[in-house]
Amino acid sequence: MADISMCSGEGCPKKTSYYRYTTEANPYRQSFLSDVMYNNNTSSCVEFIQDSRVLGKYSIVGNYSTVVIDDLDGLTLREAEDALTRVLNEGVDAYIQG
């Protein structure tokens, strides 16, 4: 159980990848954000925390937007970060694109 303020996710299109929404609530005491923090005008949430357990499709991109590893499909963000670490350890300047 996370010791964070959770979010109800009401009206939020990102709630399924939002840690404040997907984590398990403490059944005895749990705080929730008082308002939905998603802003439709900016398509963003000021309280967004990516749930690293959510599967996604990622690519690792190097200098000049060249793809180093393509189609990292079905990985959690943590697994994609591990793949990036291996690439960086090989001396390639790269980042995750998802």
Task: Write the topology of this structure.
Layout: H1 19-22, E1 38-39, E2 44-45, E3 55-62, E4 67-76, H2 77-89, E5 94-97
Antiparallel strand pairs: 1-2, 3-4, 3-5
Describe this structure in words.
- With 98 residues, this protein is of the alpha+beta class.
- The chain has 2 domains: 1-51, no CATH class; 55-97.
- It contains 2 helices and 5 strands.
- It has helices spanning 19-22, 77-89; strands at residues 38-39, 44-45, 55-62, 67-76, 94-97.
- The strands form 2 sheets. It has a 3-stranded antiparallel beta sheet, with helices on one face.
- The protein is elongated.
Distance between the termini: 27 Å
- Uncertain segments are none
Rounded Rg: 16 Å
Strand order of the largest sheet: 4-3-5
Number of helices: 2
List keywords for this structure.
single chain, alpha+beta, 5 strands, elongated
Concise summary:
The protein is of the alpha+beta class and 98 residues long.
